[in-house]
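Appendix B. Extra example for self-study. Work through it before the problem class; the solution is given directly after the inputs so you can check yourself.
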Amino acid sequence: MNTSGSKTKMERIDANRRRFLIAGTSVAGGFVLGLPAIGYSRPAIDKGTAGERQIGFFIEIRPDGAVIIGSNQPEIGQGVRTALPMLVAEELDVDWSSVSVRQMPLGIVKTADGYTWKYGGQGVGGSTGLTSNWDFMREVGATARHQLMRAAAERLEVPVSSCSTKPGFVVCDAPAGSIPYADLVADAAKLDMPAEAPPLKSQKNYRIVGTRKNTVDALDIVTGKATYGIDTMAANMRHAVIARSPYLNGSVRSFDDAEARKIDGVLDVIKIDGPKAPEPYFILASGVAVVATSTWAAIKGRDALKIDWEPGPNATDDSDRFWQENAEMLKSRGQLVTDDGDFDKAMSEAKQVLVRQYQLPFVSHQPMEPQNCYAFVEEDRCHIVAPTQMPAGASRAAAAVTGLPRENIRIDLTRIGGGFGRRLTNDYVAEAALISMKTGWPIKLQWTREDEVRNDFYRPAGLHEIRAGLDEEGRIVAWTQRLASASKYYRRPDMPDENLWEAELYPDDFPRKFVENFRLEYFHNAIGLPRGSWRAPAHTANAFVIQSFIDELAHETGQDPLQLRIDLFGEDRELEYSGHGGPVFNPGRLTRLTKFVADRIEYGRKRPKGRGVGLAAHFTFGGYAAHAFEVTVARDGQLSIDRIVAAIDCGLAVHPNAVEAQLQGATVDGISTALGQEITVKNGQVQQSNFHDYPLARISHIPTLFEAHILPYDDTPTGVGEIGIPPVAPALANAIFAASGVRLRRLPIGDQLRQALSG
Amino acid sequence: MISFKVNNEAVSFEGDSDTPLLWVLRDHLRLTGTKFACGVGLCGACVVHLDGRAAASCRVPVSSVEGRSVTTIEGLAGPDGELHPVQKAWLEMDVAQCGYCQSGQIMATADLLSRHPKPSDQDIDSNMSSMICRCGTYVRIRKAIHRAAEIAESGE
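Solution. Structure tokens for the complete assembly:
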């Protein structure tokens, strides 16, 4: 841990330390330790505000020794509600079996400079939930332990240096020197906080971190008691659904709600105005909301609406045209965004040039829990209960809609039925707040699956071209990736056109710095589909393109795809990585993972005709992963995935059970998207609507032979939520090539194999 | 008025007779363990037992359950609170990630085991492919199904 950097900042806030210390009894008779923030390295909640955390995390210790640890982050299935309390419990030194976890609401405090965090930064995205809380949570636990030791030392009149702990007890070198934490909390809470965070445990003494622990909510989940946003109930609550424009950026010309209002239970019908393109989104679409006494009455009311839609500016948008335009664009010169060495010269001197194009579709998030939000807007306040990855964004959305000051808006968090990036935006919060404000009722807004498929912040689609120049020995001397795509940054506030590429090409990814003459070129194509972050955003596309091309290059030059990867990735070394997940990229970690998965799947073994193995590896947001797939492709093109070996290197695995789960889940996600997922547009409308035409992988798609390995590296954890997905599609495509000789350069796979082999 | 049993308790519903059982359970009876996800019987998040057989409650109009018996995830454990073997296995394998689809997965598995006490991987594929887990917990679901069969057999 790096404590030296935080010292000066700690001095700055020293004067506030005592003022913000809170402590008191809880309703259950336990003492609550309110800890002032200790890390102070957290960025501000809003741009331009002073970003100190004012009141820290809390730990409640009850008379019976039960320990309740507050969880400040949204739980979307990634395991933070278990992993972060593990860090606190480790340093606090309590038995994990005595710990339960309480969800904390959004905590923001108004200061002279704007809003600042009350419980530390809250929000999960970019695989940062663990890494950004790694120091903070350990310091919370260590500080609480230290205060308990000081309280014991004072009571026993011994120096604190003679005190230590065993789980749940302070043990001092004195007669009767073993005191339960519960007996010390009241005294500990009266002590001034230490000027510096106490020393943290040596990792070799860990008893909780790094061990397999079950999900804290597992029992509630299997008994149906876990509550999600959709399960929110409140007195006088009304239910709402919205008929959203089927046209991208369409609007409501007029509507007839006579039939809808006849439906038993329908209470009100309201027009909702969406943003006009190209303004930034606050909600996704214009539409008409139906408010009713039950969800079903609202749905029936919506079905009975007669709406005359104004198709709007994107009425002729069409996926086929989008792809033709991308192909046209690649024939010209685009925006040069990275240009190392002398590409043109190296290319002109190359002995061989390999050019390939790869096409990646728009895909949708589809968390199992459809979007929903409870909102109750009153004259001077607002209450929101939302399944959101970004609760501060929910607060901003509600404030923008209601005009209320954010300190009067309460945001409660629930367990969340999947995130995948969809819930980084809070459009559904704005919708619910709008409806509550207009009707005066507490509203639970419910999206249906059709709403979910047709209205999303889709993962951007693009056509990629790789050109590589090789010397006489097959070495890469020049490389360019040229991408024509619809940027994720479309309709972002204050986003200049020349920066749109930044969401789609991550310059420091492999193979920059492995090839002297290196270029990235971008072309932005327009289409009316909203776009957003989808688990491991552009890494999914770029890993597919690059790891497929490496395979092609190996085959074209008579090299072995495994050996070529090992040669290219090379030994352990630290490369500068300026993007998210940096500042360091060590490709040697990819070498190690690639060798490992290849070894486990018996890469070198001869296989019968129709059967093959494919590999891929990628560095994503600070973590490393590799996959080996073994597949069979029948003569009619029938694909069967026979075996998968997946491996992740996330540094220190804090919560290995969840790391393994994320690797398994990301692998399934990668298969799911590669096999059949694509959002298409015709006449300005999304053509898919539910799981029949937007298929998700089923259990039968996932082989019984599936290994997920964690390869330990060092003592610093990386995130894990997104790391496991990028290598999946290229490993699968490379295996398909090895089995069948068919190179898939377009996703989803769909029926391409059948077509290729029947022709 | 439509009368039926939910988790062995008599209930009645006076609203629209075409209301899907799912919404009667969730909005009217406040049994929110049964989840809404696709609304058209394509994913299994809303699976309950209807007279002991798995059914997607989003596709069952409440009018068709008159006089019948519904079991939801809240009623799967024994009357003494002892968890069903499937729930025990789900805990042991720590199947859930977000957990949203797991009520349906568990109810579907309980039905599968009542018909195939020792299901093969093939049985699992053919019976559980009506279900979707977006988090991709299938690897653990498969293990948990085999484990649940063991627990049920041994009476652990």
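Self-check: The first strand of chain A starts at residue 23 and ends at 25. If your reasoning did not lead you there, revisit section 3.
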